[in-house]
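Reviewers of the previous submission asked for a worked example of the structure-prediction workflow described in the proposal, so we include one complete record here. The input consisted solely of the amino acid sequence. No template or homolog information was supplied to the procedure at any stage.
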Amino acid sequence: LRSQAGSINNVRYLAKADGEIIGTASLSRKHKRMRHRGELGICVKRAWWGSGAAPALMDALLAFARGNGFEQLNLATTSAPSGCMINTASGSCASFRDSSRSTGNISILI
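From that input alone, the workflow returned the following structure tokens.
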């Protein structure tokens, strides 16, 4: 984590409640000609689903991406959602497309 401090290419956020880590989110820039793209991941403990932790983490990732020149983010899922909506805590909406239903990848265009 210390090596990522101040980086414009990678970031990791922790969601905490009462001193307990309840979720994490990360974003990493791709290399060379794909530098406009990034891979992201979000994980929230099941007990905290629906609490607003995931949208807050997504807001933080989107703000970092927009502020550092990312144009497209890729999110790998365990199963590709049908008619998926990406909601954020601020109520903003990121446009996206399901780029490969069979592999469960979602591309978010920002």
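Residues 79-85, 91-103 have pLDDT under 50 and may be disordered. We consider this example representative of the routine output the project will generate in years two and three.
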